[in-house]
Amino acid sequence: MLLKRTPAAAGLVMSLALLCCFLSVGCAVPRPTLNPEQLAQVKARYLEAARTDTRTANEKMLRRMYAEQSAHLLALDAHAPPTEALPEAPHPHSTLPPTYDILILSGGGDYGAFGAGFLKAWGQITDPAFARPEFDMVTGVSTGALIAPFAFIGDDPSYTQLIDLYSTPKADWFSSRGPFFFLPGNESFMDNRGLRRDLEAAVNESVVAHIARESRNDRVLAINTTNLDVGAMHPFELSAEAERAEASGDRKRLHDILLASAAIPAVFPPVIIDGALYVDGGTTSNILYGANWLSPRAPLAVWRERHPHLPRPRIRFWVIINNQLESTAHVVQPTWISITRSSVATTIRSGTAIALRHLYAQVSTMRAEGWDADFRYVSIPESWVPPNDRPFDKDVMQSLVNLGLRMGADPSSWRSDFAR
User: Fold this and answer.
1) CA 189, 190, 192: angle at the middle one, nearest 5?
2) What is the per-residue burial (b if ≥16 Cβ within 10 Å, else e) of 125-150?
3) Quick one: which of 27, 120, 179, 282 has the fewest CB in 10 Å?
4) Are 240 and 49 in contact (CB under 8 A)?
5) Distances in Å between the alpha carbon of 304 and those of 4, 307, 312, 363?
6) Is residue 252 a contact partner of residue 199, using CB atoms and an 8 Å limit?
7) DSSP of 201-231
8) Dihedral angle at the C-alpha atoms of 110, 57, 312, 292, nearest 10 degrees?
9) What is the Cα–Cα distance from 384 to 113, expressed in whole angstroms?
10) What is the structure's pLDDT at 419?
11) Distances (CA, A) of 222 to 72, 151, 239, 259
């Protein structure tokens, strides 16, 4: 039926035309569809790649442990070498017990400012039991992924650079896509081109070369992401990626992995890597610590098989939670934005607590089986109250940096139990 040419009809036509226009603006580029057989092949390739990455990282861990054990035994008695032939160690530990130190950095968005401040001030502690070590392995998720490369390098200029990044957020790190950000054709509500620009400037050729050099010393830098196409977590070994980036001179893939780990679904743009769609690592696990340290294929079991006559190395897990583990009570308004924001925050906070409990249980079992294992974590206290509720606000982030600086210099900030 034809509409009569009345003002109301003309207005309706105009509204429909504008709606069609709006729906077509900013649409994400559609990806080709695959049949079930093709999808099965994609998943098989992904699983094999993930297994290969895990084996490679585990071998580096074992070599590193072995080298550190070598330095310890040779330092104890240079005239009585151990039964096994030991390689030259990358860095001797004098007469201290050989320790494999693992730093685990959680997600938390702008609350990563806490971790930046904490890591910087941690360097002030001189007590050997709590002093900031050179980490043998660093893992990061989301904002923790952006912190991780600098913690992996671990020198004062790197920690100072972290403080600068998190205390002076740029207004264009995340910008709205306009009044129609909610339209289904958009890939995300926000645009993060400003963040990519500053990330590429910070993780530059020099930083990548440093990470690659430490990777060749069998140190591991791992970043968790989520592969939406197969519905699974994907921990990338960024230290190995740095070696490839250094050799090729192309750092785009490395930057893509970091941005993918921090791409909160729907809020920030996803990232396509190797043809697959990746989003925030916190979607699958907000801390990356290894699925099962007690598995027969895990490094601990392999160590016992390969080196039955050598002492077991000490392992320390240091976990920095860039968030509060318990939410303060607040009234959530009945709007989809408020409900979604609160729901996502609650889900991630709950998942983080469950993962911490799981890691703590594994460390307890490791001790029962004769391993010298430590578990310590720190989080933003429930007593801290943000100056305002604006995301990525300079005042909020500076407050968190200052909190981290105070707590990082105090060994009593660390907790070694998790009975929640």
Assistant:
1) 150
2) beeeebebbebbbbbbbbbbbbbbbb
3) 179
4) no
5) 85, 5, 8, 17
6) no
7) HHS-HHHHHHHHHHHTTT-EEEEEEEETTTT
8) 70
9) 14
10) 59
11) 26, 12, 7, 14
Residues written for the chain? 420
Give 3-state DSSP helix, strand, coil % of the chain, rounded to 5: 50, 15, 40
What token pair was written down for 69? Answer: 């054990």
- Running DSSP on this structure, what letter comes out for residue 333? P
Q: Is residue 222 exposed (0-12), middle (13-18) or buried (19+ Cβ within 10 Å)?
A: buried
Q: What is the CA radius of gyration of the chain?
A: 24
Q: How far apart are CA 264 and CA 184, in angstroms?
A: 16
Residue 90 identity (one-letter amino acid)? P
The one-letter code for the residue type at 336 is W
Over the chain (420 residues), the average pLDDT of each successive run of 10 is 44 44 53 87 88 90 92 69 50 62 95 97 95 97 96 96 89 62 56 85 96 97 94 94 97 96 82 91 92 86 91 94 85 75 79 92 93 96 91 92 98 84
Structure tokens at 54: 């895990």
pLDDT of residue 98: 86
